[in-house]
Amino acid sequence: MSSAAFQAAVAWVIGQEGGYTNDPGDPGNWTGGAIGSGQCMGTNFGISAAAHPTLDIASLTEAQAEAIYEQDYWTPIQGESLPQALALIVLDAAVNSGVSQSGIWLQVVVGATTDGVIGPATLAAVQAWQSTTGDLCTEVLAQRIAALGDLPDWNTFGLGWSRRCAALAFQAATML
Questions:
Q1: Which of 62, 77, 156, 176 is deepest in the core (most CB within 10 A)?
Q2: Cα torsion at 131, 121, 67, 94 (round to 10°)?
């Protein structure tokens, strides 16, 4: 049975992601992870063809998406071991930018080895963080926004990513 923290985080992320889309201009919608690479199968509830190239994305149910979130994102980011607000921020980043990249943003902020794996050393660094959880959330979000601004498709998707990060900050604040 999933925790309340997981349920709250996944409900927010799925709410942001929405249902099925199949924009051929979005690299995540392609099974090869790049525009024109493989088949354009789309994204549903934030589960993309790039991350799950053999999945029938269009037919994916919300319950199936939640199971994927738990196995492929929540468990690898150690969501149950993070403060709830931070777990939401790291989960959202993992879904949008990958588990490893999400872990690296957290590790940069807490001064852990930047290997993209949230393990005991990263969790210890989170515990040792000398400021508030709110400040930690702010810093991880700042790392994410700075990195997103450097992506080549920022001009296409940047405003949406910015809105999402701004909304994420407000949602995380309700969990502090």
A1: 77
A2: 60
